[in-house]
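Dear Dr. H.,

I hope your travels went smoothly. While you were away I took the liberty of generating a structure for the chain from your last submission, since the lab meeting agenda had it listed for discussion. I wanted you to have the full record in hand beforehand rather than looking at slides cold. The sequence, exactly as received, is reproduced here:
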Amino acid sequence: MKRRGAAAFLLAAAVFIGLFAGCRGNESGKEKAVPRQQVSGVAVEVAALSPADVYIETSGTVKARTVSMIASRMMGVITALKVQEGDRVQAGQVLAMVDDSDVVQKVKAAEKGVEAAAQQKSLADITYQRYKGLHDDRALTGQELDQAETQKKVAEMEYERARAMLREAQVYQGFTRIVAPFSGIITEKKADVGGMAVPGMPLFTLEDTSGYRVEANVDERYGGIVKRGTQAMITIDPGSRELSGTVSDVIPSVDPSTRTFLVKIAISASGVRNGSYGKVSIPVAKEDILLVNKKAVVQRGQLTGLYTVDSSSVITYRLVRIGRTYGDRVEILSGINPGEKIIVNGAEKAVDGGILVTAK
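The corresponding predicted structure, in token form, is as follows:
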């Protein structure tokens, strides 16, 4: 009886195990039979390494190529101000006027002096010609002719001296008109009508808007690499405006407190402002990096990724970490490897876990 009971128990256990195994097999079969969503109409390419520049990044400040402090060249009371801060001016435009009453009187006196000297010169010329004719007729001695010639030369010298005095007075009269040395924008006004203009004391600050540069401090490790003529990229805030520039000056001395040296980058652009912040990128070497088309990168909220396609045509959304942008391509720092297939066009049609169907 005991043997029959044990046999019956083993038989029941075997049947139970068989039924359990059959159920698991059926479940596994159901998983394999789950259909995947088909995806078509997308373009796929193989991610590959590409040669690209390696950049160093630093911050810089936009500065006008020329900033001048405009001052008067003579002392006097300011009688007129022609411009205000923010005004755009042209080269030679009058910015301010200084009282010229004293100078005007000097100019008038010099003009009268020139007129009188011209009359004396004309009289001396006539006298000399008359004396020369008499001398030729042997009516005068040579000494008398020499005296007339000397008077003629003295009159000519007095005439030239009077003209020089007039020119000097006119130059001083010009100093009463303070003009712009070049075209640009008035960024600061330091004078008011009725104030005293003093030689060397700034009245205006004029900024040349025809050209700007970015001044940046670069780590001393790159002292022998960053050279004049090196191309650079600058991102200007606000607006994250990207500009290209050329290193125009490299100041080799190193600041002992920051261990950096100064680099000046010339830029040609309108609409930038003196003092703006700029993010500077300077190429220092070349290396092979993984670049993909920008269209391949897909944002999912705070996540950044792209769709890969494996050997079985299964699509998988992979998280990646991106680096610098190079035109229409972007650097992939991690998340995929060279040689993997990625979807570059039509990524909006891709489905994680879908299967890629190619046209026959």
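Two observations you may find useful: The radius of gyration is 44 Å. The longest strand covers residues 48-64.

With kind regards,
E. W.
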